[in-house]
Specification:
The complex is a heterodimer of chains A (430) and B (314). Chain A is of the alpha/beta class and 430 residues long. Chain A has two domains: 176 residues, 3-Layer(aba) Sandwich (D-Maltodextrin-Binding Protein, domain 2); 198 residues, D-Maltodextrin-Binding Protein, domain 2 (3-Layer(aba) Sandwich), CATH 3.40.190. Chain A has 19 helices and 13 strands. In chain A, helix 8 runs parallel beside helix 10, helix 10 crosses helix 18 and helix 17 crosses helix 19. The radius of gyration of chain A is 25 Å and the shape is globular. By secondary structure, chain B is mostly helical. Chain B has two domains: 45 residues, no CATH class; 238 residues, MetI-like fold, CATH 1.10.3720.10. Chain B contains 16 helices and two strands. In chain B, strand 1 and strand 2 form a beta hairpin. In chain B, helix 5 packs antiparallel against helix 12, helix 10 crosses helix 12 and helix 14 packs antiparallel against helix 15. Chain B starts with a helix and ends with a helix. In chain B, 32% of the residues are buried. Classes of the chains: A alpha/beta (430), B mainly alpha (314).
């Protein structure tokens, strides 16, 4: 009897195991429908109304007008690059994806050449800003259709600046230092991220470096030139700014911290995207009223900003390439895209010059500096052409850590030597 | 008595005809069935552990940018790591983090296990509650720690300022040394229950008679711990330490949520550095090489411990 039960259960186990194996081998493949449906992957926006507008208005409109269903897939903040990479590696994923920063260069081999539509859209809408070409054109071909820039600018408390007698935001870094010293004495320190976040650190440190005339590599993309007097001056300045105006905690900040400090009224000035104002207006209206935004201060060699572009790219393994292109052309038509830009107030600054004076800019005039920063914005690694080494340098926080180490007490010479050693190693294999 | 001996004992001299092959009977043979049982998990291991591991080794020998074909470059990735100052800092961080957290967990866990092994009211409830840090998903509990260590909202700093010990309170994640200290504390908090509960299980296997005999012989509490508890608990301590070292050495979530390796790489560990280089930097080859660098020290440590355990037994 025991034997019968044993043999029966043995057979069952085998049966279940083989069925499960077959299921795993043949089932579960979530393919993308070949026609009448395209998929569009995006990172969740900090402005929920923007994603809602796509889902509830534009997607139904497109289905009605063209008969193609758009599957708008949202990925949580900070996870999109992993998803874009997974799709590129496996050749299985959405048709269209949002791409950020230097990704068109990273995933170049897997992205469709969209030069025809990108150029046509530019021509129709007053032309593209030159800065976006740094990010979207890879080896002479447009690998993405530019969408909008989420700039990083100076956010400051007009009431506290006013209390120490400063009405307008300082025009130079030295002016900012002077203001910061007064404000810290008055109990309102500055707070600029110096830790390992995604954007608020690069947002002011690269522009600071450039405005002193320093950069990581020459335009040849090979010669490392970080070891310069200009870099040393920028570092000495940053150290003073940190020690005399900021909270020590900034060294360990990631992107959320300055927002938290802002909303809890701990800091009087930071560098952030305009979401800080948007959020303050919604949740902390009193703080929203006194939040001002300005261009970065200028240094001896000019005024600079970080380019933080969101673009749309089509995977070259997509089975719906033409449908995806058609959708992007439709989307970028003023009838559609202007409303999408408006839904986010002006969080995404268009790279198309035709929108320079669009009505959505007047909804919140304090956002205008984000438009004005476009012509002086660059990707990290500038003025070298963008490629793999720049991305590696950003991922290793070479420039950020150079400044952070100096701020935490290391000598200028030492931190430059560290950065130069790292950069030489990164660019050697370029 | 087997079929074979029955056949020999029968009157018939003719050999018994071989039964026709039956698949069912074949699968019931012990030798066949055991293999059929072992093969699926073995395949599972090969697919989910073996293949990624071998692929990782292969990747580490390639210049392999994301979404591009790789080029075999031999040991070049490892050679560049040797010359990368951040890599050495990461290695040092990982060792400091692992050793400090493991020692703290061991001492704290042993203490906790000894206390929990006593008889007291609500013993079972307290044992269950103690496991909470280990049960709560790490990302969630770490977000709570993010608030505890936040300079503006820190409950710790609130007390420090209120009691006049420090004003302003320390920057737990902004100061490079304090940041590492904070991470070690959070890791210890999270891993302590694992130590405590395993050691408690070990303590309960020690026969009370040994303690009774020792007490009759006049052994002090310390002597009972020194000569009974410690030697009998040693194998459990070794096993739990081995697990803890592996988990701590390859920790990722905690650092990724709290500091992402900052300030200035002061808290970067092998796993977080490998992730940044491979995923954010798009350098799969170099990232794999960083991740693989965890293997030799871990393998040495585990081999050493296994060897020590064996030599203790004989």
């Amino acid at each position: 009897m025991a034997n019968i039960i044993r043999s029966a259960s043995r057979r069952d186990v085998l049966k279940i195991a083989s069925l499960a194996g077959a299921g795993a081998a043949f089932g579960g493949h979530a393919g993308y429908a070949a026609d009448k449906k395209i998929s569009f992957m995006h990172e969740s926006s900090f402005i929920p109304a923007y994603d809602d507008f796509m889902k509830k208005t534009l997607v139904p409109e497109y289905a009605k007008a063209v008969g193609v269903d758009v599957d708008y897939q949202l990925i949580s903040v900070g996870s999109l690059q992993t998803r874009v990479a997974t799709a590129a590696e496996t050749g299985n994923g959405p048709d269209i994806t949002a791409v950020y920063f230097s990704w068109p260069f990273l995933f170049d081999d897997k992205l469709l050449d969209v030069s025809d539509i990108a150029e046509a859209i530019g021509k129709k809408n007053g032309g593209w800003y030159d800065s976006i070409k740094e990010s979207a054109i890879v080896n002479g071909k447009w690998k993405a259709v530019p969408f909008g820039n989420v700039g990083q600018l100076m956010n400051w408390r007009s009431d506290w600046f006013g209390e120490v007698g400063i009405k307008d935001f300082p025009d130079t870094w030295d002016g900012l230092l002077e203001a910061g010293i007064k404000l810290k004495k008055a109990g309102h320190p500055f707070g600029f991220e110096l830790g390992h976040g995604f954007g608020d650190n690069h947002g002011w440190l690269y522009p600071l470096l450039w405005s002193y005339g320093a950069h990581e590599v020459e335009p040849d993309g090979k010669t490392v030139v970080i070891d310069s007097d200009e870099t040393a001056r920028a570092i000495d300045y940053a150290r003073k700014l940190f020690q005399q105006t900021m909270l020590e905690d900034c060294l360990g900040w990631t992107d959320v911290n300055n927002n938290k400090a802002w909303m809890s009224e701990q800091i009087s000035c930071t560098n952030n995207a305009e979401s800080i104002l948007w959020f303050a207006k919604k949740q902390f209206p009193d703080i929203g009223k006194v939040t001002q935004q300005s261009l970065n201060p200028q240094g001896p060699k000019g005024r600079f900003h970080i380019l933080a572009p969101w673009n749309h790219a089509i995977y070259n393994f997509s089975a719906n390439q033409q449908a995806a292109k058609d959708f992007l052309v439709w989307l970028m038509d003023p009838k559609q895209v202007e409303r999408w830009y408006s839904s986010a107030d002006s969080y995404y600054a268009p790279f198309l010059k035709a929108y320079d004076n669009a009505p959505f800019w007047s909804v919140e005039p304090r956002n205008l500096p984000y438009r004005d920063s476009l012509s002086t914005s660059h990707l990290p690694g500038w003025p070298a052409p963008i490629g793999r080494p720049q991305t590696e340098s950003v991922a290793k926080y070479v420039v950020v850590d150079m400044f952070a180490k100096a701020c935490s007490g290391k000598s200028t010479k030492e931190v430059i030597a560290d950065a130069a050693a790292q950069l030489k190693q990164i660019y050697k294999t370029a | 008595m087997s079929a074979h001996s029955q056949a020999l004992g029968s009157t018939s001299l003719r050999p018994r005809p071989r039964p026709a092959f039956s698949f069912r009977r074949w699968t019931e043979r012990e030798g066949v069935f055991s293999w059929l049982m072992v093969i699926p998990p073995a395949l599972f291991l090969v697919a989910l552990v073996g293949y990624p591991f071998v692929y990782g080794i292969w990747l580490s020998l390639e210049e392999r940018p994301v979404a591009k074909p790789g080029v075999f470059i031999g040991l070049s990735n490892f050679i560049s790591l040797v010359h990368d100052p951040v890599f050495w800092q990461v290695a040092q961080n990982t060792f400091v983090y692992t050793i400090s957290a493991t020692v703290l967990k061991m001492i704290g866990g042993l203490g906790l296990a000894l206390v929990l092994n006593q008889d007291f009211k609500f013993k079972n409830i307290i044992r269950a509650v103690m496991l909470l840090p280990f049960i709560v998903p790490t990302v969630l509990s770490t977000i709570a720690w993010m608030w505890i260590l936040d300079p503006s909202f820190s409950v710790v700093n609130w007390f420090l300022v209120r009691w006049g010990i420090a004003n302003p309170g320390p920057s737990w994640l902004g100061n490079p040394k304090l940041a590492m200290f904070s991470l070690i504390m959070v890791n210890t908090w999270r891993g302590l229950p694992f130590y405590a509960i395993t050691l408690l299980a070990g303590l309960q296997t020690i026969s009370p008679e040994l303690y009774e005999a020792a007490t009759i012989d006049g052994a002090s509490t310390f002597a009972r711990f020194r000569y009974i508890t410690a030697p009998l608990l040693k194998p459990v301590v070794f096993i739990v330490t081995m697990f803890s070292v592996i988990f701590t050495f390859s920790d990722f979530q905690l650092v990724y949520v709290l500091t992402r390796g900052g300030p200035a790489n002061a808290t970067h560990l092998f796993a977080t550095y490998a992730f940044d280089v491979a995923m954010s930097g798009g350098q799969f080859g170099l990232g794999a090489a960083i991740a693989l660098s965890m293997l030799p020290p871990l393998a040495l440590l585990i081999a050493g411990m296994a060897w020590y355990m064996r030599s203790e037994k004989t």
